[in-house]
Amino acid sequence: MNQQQIVQIIDKVIAEFQGKNTIPVEASGRHVHLCQKDVDILFGRGHQLTPKRELSQPGQYLCQERVNLIGPKGMLQNVAVLGPARPETQAELSRTDARIVGVDAPIRESGNVKGSPGLVMTAGTNFVTLNEGVIVARNHIHMTPEDAERLGVKDKDEVDVKVQCGRGITFNDVLVRVNSRFSLSMHIDFDEANAVDLMPNTVGEVIARSC
């Protein structure tokens, strides 16, 4: 039994105890995804991203490598890089982060960067200029096909999620993302997490499908 299967079994057990419509909620901090071309430019030709620790989504990991992000008005230092390398480079920021660097980042699903603003990304004396690729990640739920069947949803659906936390709130129009490689979890950014006083082991309840 591999790690992905173990994680999925744990998710199912938790769901049984907490209720069939309950999902874990996690805060996702600012980070970047790099294509291999930009990895080569920033860290040296042929460089491979170095895993530091695994993330909740199987196959995804926090890297040892870090970058700085420079925009028209400011800089974010020591920004996390998540691996493995992807087809396109993108930076996922909170709205507060975007204002610090001075870009009007749209709220988008990860990977949808067309027409988004760019910035300069540096590592040491090396740099990459992005013409586009800066977004505020739309809140979303990762789930397996089995989770989707249990919750009565499908890929790209939008649902409402009532989050049970210090400042309880219902998030509307949360995007559903279904893939057999995923582990059940709702992701919100740090602005959202701070606003609702998110704590470890917070859960949310899928209460309605949005029209």
Textual characterization of the structure:
The protein is of the alpha/beta class and 211 residues long. The termini are far apart. It is globular, with a radius of gyration of 18 Å. The protein has helices at residues 3-18, 36-43, 95-101, 145-151, 190-195; strands at residues 22-28, 31-33, 51-54, 61-70, 75-83, 90-93, 107-108, 120-123, 126-129, 134-137, 140-143, 158-164, 169-178, 185-189, 203-209. Strand 3 and strand 4 form a beta hairpin. The chain folds into two domains: 3-27 and 139-209, Barwin-like endoglucanases (Beta Barrel), CATH 2.40.40.20; 29-137, no CATH class. The protein contains five helices and 15 strands. The strands form two sheets. Strands 2, 3, 4, 5, 6, 7, 8, 9 and 10 form a nine-stranded mixed beta sheet that branches. Involved in 1,2-propanediol (1,2-PD) degradation by catalyzing the conversion of propanoyl-CoA to propanoyl-phosphate. It is found in: Bacterial microcompartment. Pfam families: PTAC (PF06130).
Write down the overall mean pLDDT. 91
Number of strands: 15
Number of spatially distinct domains: 2
Please write the string of helix (H) and strand (E) elements: HEEHEEEEHEEEEEHEEEHE
The CA-CA distance between the termini, in Å, is 40 Å
Poorly predicted runs are none
Share of helix among residues?
10-25%
Radius of gyration: 18 Å
Which class do the helix and strand fractions yield? alpha/beta
Specify the number of helices: 5
User: What composes the largest sheet?
Assistant: 9 strands, mixed
Using the alpha-carbon principal axes, give the shape.
globular
Function: Involved in 1,2-propanediol (1,2-PD) degradation by catalyzing the conversion of propanoyl-CoA to propanoyl-phosphate.
EC number: 2.3.1.222
Catalytic activity: propanoyl-CoA + phosphate = propanoyl phosphate + CoA
GO cellular component, one term: bacterial microcompartment
